[in-house]
Amino acid sequence: MPDILFIPPDDRLPFARDIAALHLTAFPSSHFTTLFSINLLESYYSKLLSYSDAVIIAFDAENVVGFILAGTNLGYGVSKFVSAYRFSLFAILLKNPSHLCSKIISALNLPFRRTSRYKSNHSYRLFSICVSPGIQGKGLGSQLLSSLEYYLASSSISSYGLSVKSSNSAAVRFYLMNGFLVDRSDGDLCFMSKGLP
Fold first, then answer.
1. Residue 88 belongs to a domain
2. pLDDT tens by residue, 80-105
3. Which one, 67, 120, 156, 164, has least CB within 10 Å?
């Protein structure tokens, strides 16, 4: 079984490329970030690693085979990334009409929503979890969550939330099997949370 380690803030950035490479192999092709080049995705994860409260990485020998990014400020990291790379992101959207249409429809619907589409009821959020496709379904994802929950409990955090695309049925099933409850759905986003003992 892979080794699971909590990565301290000063040691995180060297893992950005390995995390980006794993992301490209494991995330569904419908996820917008799978359209990024490895260099752009590495920049994305560099920002996220800088703004994460918890970075947990699973290693099999020297290889990154799973990870979790979680915290309270990851939205700020995404904003910083979008600000720095807006032209690259716009070019990706122009080359991928289905994603462009989705983003436009989402933006047009914003004035009509009672709550923010991306707003969770929980300040602490699981932002990203990933396991290498070759070892998915063998318990590593659940072990990563347990490691995060141990950290949260030791930090006196009693619950956390996440959002996932409702159409990503494998991820929704995974979260339900690991004790998450559905808080609400908004379009194709499902907001889930889990209380900790």
1. yes
2. 999 999 999 888 888 876 655 555 55
3. 156
Question: Domain tally for the chain?
Answer: 1
pLDDT single digits (tens) 140-181: 999 999 999 999 999 999 999 999 988 899 999 999 999 999
Direct distance between the N- and C-terminal alpha carbons of the chain, in angstroms, rounded to an integer: 26
Of 83, 6, 99, the C-alpha closest to 44 is 83
117: in domain: yes
For the CA atoms of 173, 137, 151, 7, the dihedral, rounded to the nearest 10 degrees, stands at -130
CATH number for the domain that contains residue 30: 3.40.630
Is 129 among the domain residues? yes
Residue 8 belongs to some domain of the structure: yes
Q: How many CB atoms lie within 10 A of CB 138?
A: 12
Q: Which of 134, 138, 168, 120 is nearest to 1 (CA)?
A: 138
Domain that holds residue 119: 3-157
DSSP letter for each residue of the chain: --EEEEPPGGG-GGGHHHHHHHHHHHS-TTSGGGGS-HHHHHHHHHHHHHH-SEEEEEEETTEEEEEEEEES-HHHHHHHHHHHHHHHHHHHHHH-HHHHHHHHHHHHHGGG-SS-TT--S-SSEEEEEEE-GGGTTSSHHHHHHHHHHHHHHHTT--EEEEEEETT-HHHHHHHHHTT-EEEEEETTEEEEEEE--
